[in-house]
Design brief:
three-stranded antiparallel β-sheet, 5 helices, single chain, 3 strands
Length: 243
């Protein structure tokens, strides 16, 4: 805003005050307009962030549901394999094992890693500060479960590597109805590999289930941690049937 001198000389105190009042009012109007524009911009950024979080949550619901569809039958199968290997009777230092048939139909979906982009970017850019504190805390909670999910994925990869080593060492591919003739040491190796896989796969699916509930809560319009946690407690969990 430009401030111009009066067109005519100021001769009285009243004229001076009127001129100063006009200047002050003009400045206040300019500042108010600037703040209004800035406020609208911040409001737009906040709504955009919320929409992006909801869109990411919607995609993750689909991704995590596929994870459960595909991996719950694998958990059931590995548990059945573990029982069969443990129950096999040794003879003359060897054990003959036939793995059980397929217990549950495996899901047909293609698995992808859950997305975790919007909240870290908002923290880096500062747009997270535009959210009310309870909502920001809720999104931090969701992001925490996302990072924990990534850690569980790393652990299941390590566990699955034990099964891969067993297959490479013995030539047996673990699958329904597979017949194996193992030494006692090889059976012990397989027991360790299977038990580790079962444990870590359950932990991964448990974390997937929690992350899935968080994302569903975001889509349902929950806007604070306490309500999200209570909502998750009240929801049925698919993994409860496979404890």
């Amino acid at each position: 805003m430009e401030v111009h001198p009066p067109e005519h000389a100021v001769h009285t105190v009243r004229e001076f005050l009127v001129h100063m009042l006009a200047i002050v009012l003009g400045l206040l109007i300019a500042i108010g307009l600037e703040q209004s524009v800035e406020g609208l911009h911040r409001l737009h950024e906040r709504h955009e962030l919320e929409e992006n979080m909801r869109a990411e949550a919607e995609r993750n619901v689909e991704i995590l549901t596929t994870h459960l569809d595909v991996n719950i039958p694998e958990l059931v199968q590995y548990r059945a394999d573990l029982v069969a290997v443990r129950a096999a009777v040794a003879r003359d230092g060897f054990v003959d094992i036939t793995l059980p048939p397929r217990r549950m139909k495996r899901g047909d979906g293609v698995m992808f890693a859950p997305e975790r982009d919007v909240w870290p970017v908002s923290l880096a850019s500062g747009t997270s500060a535009l959210l009310p504190e309870p909502m920001a805390q809720m999104y931090s909670h969701v992001d925490f479960n996302a990072t924990e999910d990534v850690k569980e994925v790393d652990r299941i990869r390590e566990a699955s590597a034990l099964l891969t080593r067993f297959s490479l060492a013995t030539g047996y591919e673990l699958g329904p109805n597979e017949q194996m003739h193992l030494s006692l040491a090889e059976r012990e190796q397989l027991l360790v590999a299977l038990s580790t896989e079962v444990q870590q796969l359950f932990q991964l699916l448990r974390r997937d289930n929690l992350f899935l509930l968080d994302c569903q809560g975001v889509l349902n319009g929950i806007d604070n941690v306490r309500s999200l946690e209570q909502w998750a407690v009240d929801q049925p969990k698919r993994l409860d049937a496979y404890r």
